[in-house]
Specification:
Length: about 300
């Protein structure tokens, strides 16, 4: 059953505890960790804006001020840069504010991603919406949301993004059991399981942090019991949507083959920084020379 309303709302959960990145995240949300020269979350909000998602709701938790402040104006800093005639830095700081209107709601207790999404119920209302995880960075050149939106317009229901991972790593992700839809580039999701043991995983297809959800997900989340890690898991709600019939049911998936970084994971965070810094107009050339020398020294 197709819900053909254009998706305009994006929900960005950023209320997790970020324990994988301690101690850096002891007093600061992991979404504020810089990737080259911008906090990780700014890349995510910019991605939503590029896909035409003009209404952003951020789910925040502890230390929410840093997140809100970053997307707000700082008149004194702007005036000082203006007075110095430093228009380059001025436009850099205005970039975050120009991304659109951002609304905030607080998840009082980090009871899991499913619970964070449920906090968006009132703001989203009865329309399909996007969820972009605040610590998942998709490379700007590898557009994923647009293809997901196209699939959602064809299939209705919900659409998730999957990525092939090495079989031994699947236990760190939600994992999908899928079937081919003949003549299509997307697949149908038969079932989902959160962080399965390697020998029980139905595939090596990992759920990554981009979702287009039918509002029916809120009804399901209302009764989703805590699952893995005693958290209310979005994967469990999607498993229910994938296996039920009726309005708002059905889950399809796009298999993403581009570049994606989990900035809440120390190694992936470093990879994101190096990749984007090498591509950066100001830093790239010098960094490449330094990196080559560094690798040569290590080999020696
Ligand atoms: P993660 O599982 O990566 O977040 O959730 P976490 O719990 O902060 O991570 P670790 O394992 O302790 O390091 C994915 C996304 O969902 C958000 C997180 O902020 C992240 O963007 N999230 C998670 C919430 O907003 N609320 C929650 O209760 C849990």
């Amino acid at each position: 059953m197709s819900v053909s309303r254009r998706i305009t709302k994006a929900v960005i959960p950023a209320a997790g505890l970020g324990t994988r990145f301690l101690p850096a995240t002891k007093a600061m949300p992991k979404e504020m960790l810089p990737v080259v020269d911008k906090p990780a979350i700014q890349y995510v909000v910019a991605e939503a804006a590029r896909a035409g998602l003009s209404d952003v709701l951020m789910i925040t938790g502890r230390s929410k001020r840093a997140l809100e402040d970053h997307f707000d104006r700082v008149p004194s800093l702007e005036a000082s840069l203006e007075a110095k005639g430093d228009h380059k830095k001025l436009s850099m700081i205005q970039e975050a504010t120009a991304l659109g209107d951002i609304h905030y709601i607080r998840q009082r207790d980090p009871r899991g991603l499913g619970h964070a999404v449920l906090c968006a119920k009132q703001h989203v209302g009865d329309e399909p919406f996007a969820v972009l995880l605040g610590d998942d960075l998709i490379h700007e050149q590898d557009d994923l949301l647009t293809s997901m939106i196209q699939v959602q317009e064809k299939t209705g229901g919900s659409v998730i993004a999957l990525m092939e991972v090495d079989a031994q790593h699947i236990s760190s992700y939600g994992c999908a059991d899928v079937e081919v839809v003949s003549g299509s580039e997307y697949v149908k999701v038969r079932g989902l399981v959160e962080k399965p043991n390697v020998d029980e995983a139905p595939s090596n297809l990992a759920v990554i942090g981009r979702y287009l959800l039918h509002p029916r997900v809120f009804d399901v989340l209302e009764h989703t019991a805590p699952g893995r890690g005693n958290e209310i898991q979005l994967t469990d709600a999607l498993q229910e949507l994938a296996t039920e019939n009726g309005e708002g049911s059905g889950v399809h998936a796009v298999i993403f083959r581009g570049r994606r970084y989990d900035t809440g994971d120390k190694l992936s965070y470093l990879e994101a920084n190096i990749t984007l810094a090498v591509e950066n107009d100001e830093l790239g050339e010098e960094l490449k020379i330094w990196l080559k020398e560094f690798v040569d020294r290590m080999d020696a």
